[in-house]
Design goal:
By secondary structure, this protein is of the alpha/beta class. The chain is built from twelve helices and eight strands. An eight-stranded parallel beta barrel has the order 1-2-3-4-5-6-7-8, surrounded by five helices. α11 links the parallel β7 and β8. α1 packs across α12. The longest helix is centred in the C-terminal third of the chain and has 19 residues. The protein is globular, with a radius of gyration of 17 Å. The relative contact order is 0.15. Bound molecules: phosphoenolpyruvate.
Length: about 250
């Protein structure tokens, strides 16, 4: 049985003060659920939010990292720095990073390898554009992203990897993939993992759906056979919505 995982991606929202307020409202949500709850917060808030989460079951995530442990990379944050704070997860290859910050499948792979090396669990984002879906090449696109992201990732490390399928056209747009379409792609991702790592590992890896997940559509998505959780953007900024999503 795969443990469901619901992660909030705050993106570039919330000052430290705002973040603490939000976390105080949601931090007991993980106490009475079998869902693993993660909040992925801006770098500047990680330390303070970590303190706020002490003694709770909510895990802490970052939204990006560099693959090198240190060096002349002005403005970047290394896995060692994240580890020092006690970060559990890191989002890698979010479509906004691919779109606005030139992240490629190659840099995603370097970050994934590095995160695993330093004991941080990567949430690897993949997904197609609307144009690619209309051309019926969405599975080719996603399988290429997955195969490159997982290059040189060992079978053992795969158990610490989470994948998030996020069709780009559904992020922040209010458009959700139908639960059937989302499940279809996520089953396909699982098959791709099975092809490389075998059935046992493919059945253990958790694959989330992301793209306008809200309290009103989360249950239907989570009822699908292969959807193991959600990566939630906008709705993770409102305590009530996020709590209702976790308690789907
Ligand atoms: C996201 O940021 O990964 C996301 C899915 O955003 P939203 O839920 O706002 O579509």
């Amino acid at each position: 049985m795969r443990k469901p995982i619901i992660a909030g991606n705050w993106k570039m929202h919330n000052t430290i003060e705002e973040g603490i307020k939000l976390v105080r409202e949601i931090k007991s949500v993980a106490d009475n659920t079998d869902v693993e709850v993660v909040v992925c917060v801006p770098f500047t808030s990680l330390s303070e939010i970590k303190k706020e989460l002490q003694g709770t079951k909510v895990k802490l995530g970052a939204q990006n990292m560099h693959w090198e442990e240190k060096g002349a990379y002005t403005g970047e944050i290394s896995p060692v720095m994240l580890k020092e704070i006690g970060v559990d997860y890191v989002i890698i290859g979010h479509s906004e990073r691919r779109q606005y910050f030139n992240e490629t499948d190659e840099t995603v792979n370097k970050k994934v390898i590095s995160a695993l090396k330093y004991g941080i669990k990567p949430i690897i984002c993949v997904g197609e554009t609307l144009e690619q879906r209309e051309k019926n090449i969405e599975k080719d696109v996603v399988s290429k992203q997955i195969i490159k992201a997982l290059e040189n990732v060992s079978a053992e490390d795969m158990l610490n990897v989470v994948i998030a399928y996020e069709p780009i056209w559904a992020i922040g747009t209010g458009k959700t993939a139908s639960s059937k379409d989302a499940n279809d792609m996520i089953s396909f991702i699982r098959e791709t993992i099975r092809g490389k790592y075998g059935v046992d590992i493919s059945e253990e890896v958790r694959i989330q759906y992301g793209g306008s997940v809200k309290p009103h559509n989360v249950t239907e998505l989570m009822n699908e056979s292969d959807i193991d959780g959600a990566l939630v953007g906008g709705a993770s900024l409102k305590a009530e919505d996020f709590i209702n999503i976790v308690n789907f």
